[in-house]
Amino acid sequence: MAHKALTVSAFTASAVSAALLLGAGAAQAGGCFGSSCRPAPCQGAACYNLVVTPPVYGTIAETQIVRPAKTYRRIVPAEYDYVTEKVMIHPARQIQHHVPAQYSSVQEKVLISPGGKRWEVTTDAYGRTTGCWVYDKPQYGFRQRTVEVSPARVEYETVPPVYTQRQRKVMVRPTQVLHETVPAVTETRHRKVLVSPGSQQWQRAGY
Questions:
Q1: pLDDT (tens digit per residue) in 125-168
Q2: CA distance linking residue 107 with residue 109, whole number of Å
Q3: Model-level pTM?
């Protein structure tokens, strides 16, 4: 868009000889001679002078666009980085262990003969037979025996999970499209224009 500023400067144009001739003819028709009427020749007739108004020129300032504004598009690529994270290689698990039964040897007292009363007949040296009751004591003995101390069982061992460190590439910032606008370049130019075209008119001559 152009912005205009008007500065008026007057230029005076010289009188055109053809216009003077026309004015002289009109003066002769009214009884006047020459560019100015003299009182003696006019003898009562109306006398007029030709008044020339020169054209007036001015200067306007116009702002014009030399180069329009332009928008550029610039693509900024995505940015990536590496992060370290903990990953599990093996999960936790349980291992079975079979524990066998435990045995031991014990010694115990057992009855070998219960004892008791019995009739016993004997013959002495003289040939006499004698019968007697004999009391026997119980007879005991010892023997070894294997006994189970603890039964067989299954025990579970828990193995903890196994971890390791691993690097992984991740996107920190996605791809971006940036727009950069270069402003327009303008220039001010001055141009001469006609403000008033000027004019010619007859004015009554003064006495």
A1: 888 888 888 888 888 888 888 989 899 999 999 999 999 999 99
A2: 7
A3: 0.33
HSE-up of residue 194 (Cα within 13 Å, Cβ side): 5
Site of tokens 């007879």? 139
Type of residue numbered 85: E
Buried b (16+ CB within 10 A) or exposed e, 30-69: eebeeeebeeeebeeeebbbbebeeeebbebeeeeeeeee
